[in-house]
Amino acid sequence: DAKTTQPPSMDCAEGRAANLPCNHSTISGNEYVYWYRQIHSQGPQYIIHGLKNNETNEMASLIITEDRKSSTLILPHATLRDTAVYYCIVSSISNDYKLSFGAGTTVTVRA
Amino acid sequence: ETGVTQTPRHLVMGMTNKKSLKCEQHLGHNAMYWYKQSAKKPLELMFVYNFKEQTENNSVPSRFSPECPNSSHLFLHLHTLQPEDSALYLCASSQDEGEGYGYTFGSGTRLTVV
């Protein structure tokens, strides 16, 4: 599976959009991009996933570049409860889409 | 509550003890997973079960022994653990093995080995 690179930490202001980058320059054509987050002392929570097209759900939007080598998770209006570690993961059918977690980005939303 | 329940939430055990962690889901999922999360380290996949059959063991020491009696229950039996085994143990389930977007995690068991 392709490895991902995320910044170790970032701050954002409450009420503003949070844009979380992820590089996956070695991604292959059949690998999906998944985003999960882990709030302190809880298990990870699924946010969104995509293959090629941009995706949006009630939690976030996922923007994938045309060459698929990077993506951005957008939290449109960050709240204090969005403070968490955010994981960008790529996976494919070659490993049964198992999730391999990296260090993620620690996002702190400040009032 | 996520639909995946782990008990106990906290466990302190000595190195000579035997204990078990329990995971239960009633989401109708067929795949269940054990992950380990040590302090300041990423989550590590330990075991995968699909339709009660173990499909993956990521070189986990034999002092960790999983059991999956049915698709709704998963256990992790612990014996003669070491202090470095202290960690957060997370259980997850998904509809089937092979659905990366559909993992539901429990809140974990915080294990301390003394």
N- to C-terminal distance of chain A: 38 Å
Poorly predicted parts of chain A: none
**How many angstroms separate the termini of chain B?**
30 Å
Q: What is the mean predicted local confidence, pLDDT of chain A?
A: 93
Helical run tally of chain A: 0
Task: Describe the structure using short key phrases.
heterodimer; A: 111 residues; B: mainly beta; 7-stranded mixed beta sheet; 4-stranded antiparallel beta sheet; globular
List strands and helices in order, with pairings:
The complex is a heterodimer of chains A (111) and B (114).
Chain A: E1 9-13, E2 18-23, E3 32-38, E4 45-50, E5 55-56, E6 61-64, E7 70-75, E8 84-91, E9 105-110
Parallel strand pairs in A: 1-9
Antiparallel strand pairs in A: 2-7, 3-4, 3-8, 5-6, 6-7, 8-9
Chain B: E1 4-7, E2 10-13, E3 18-25, E4 31-37, E5 44-50, E6 53-57, E7 64-70, E8 73-79, E9 87-94, E10 104-105, E11 109-113
Parallel strand pairs in B: 2-11
Antiparallel strand pairs in B: 1-3, 3-8, 4-5, 4-9, 5-6, 7-8, 9-10, 9-11
